[in-house]
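Students often ask why inverse folding is considered easier than folding. One informal answer: many sequences map to the same fold, so there is more than one right answer. In these notes we will look at a single instance of the problem. The structure comes first.
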């Protein structure tokens, strides 16, 4: 497992810039290489339960970091269109395209692709063609679509 230093260096890990501790990064890198928790624990002189806790905390930190980035991207998006519960998914692209035209932003998706992206990103907030929970569709300056589901 001495190649862990190389793996961290190749991925550009910098503990001073990361939400992960060095140990969390090491464990994630090894797990991504297919190394079992028990083997990691043995090589690091600790228990499998400890490695499990480290991995769990690392994955939670990654999920929080992704959520934070998604929030900020949606917040900074020059185009933001809210859709209430009961909206037909088929109405979403035209409303978003109209808002993008008004803002001078080009969208990187076709209408069908946008419906698919919105539906997938919204999860249970969209069922079939119906928006069941209010959502916010943001379009970045680069034309990327970001979907935020209203909190319960």
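Output (designed amino acids):
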């Amino acid at each position: 497992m001495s190649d862990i230093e190389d793996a961290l260096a190749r991925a550009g890990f910098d503990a001073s810039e990361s939400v992960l501790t060095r140990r969390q990064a090491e464990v994630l890198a090894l797990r991504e290489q297919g190394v079992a928790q028990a083997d990691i624990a043995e090589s690091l002189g600790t228990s499998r339960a400890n490695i499990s806790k480290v991995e769990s905390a690392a994955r939670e930190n990654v999920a929080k970091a992704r959520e934070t980035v998604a929030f900020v991207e949606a917040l900074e998006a020059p185009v933001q269109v809210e859709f209430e519960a009961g909206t037909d998914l088929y109405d979403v692209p035209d409303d978003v395209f109209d808002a993008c035209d008004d803002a001078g932003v080009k969208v990187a998706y076709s209408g069908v692709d946008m419906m698919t992206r919105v539906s997938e990103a919204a999860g249970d907030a969209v069922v079939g063609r119906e928006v069941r929970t209010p959502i916010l569709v943001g379009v970045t300056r680069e034309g990327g679509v970001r979907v935020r589901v209203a909190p319960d």
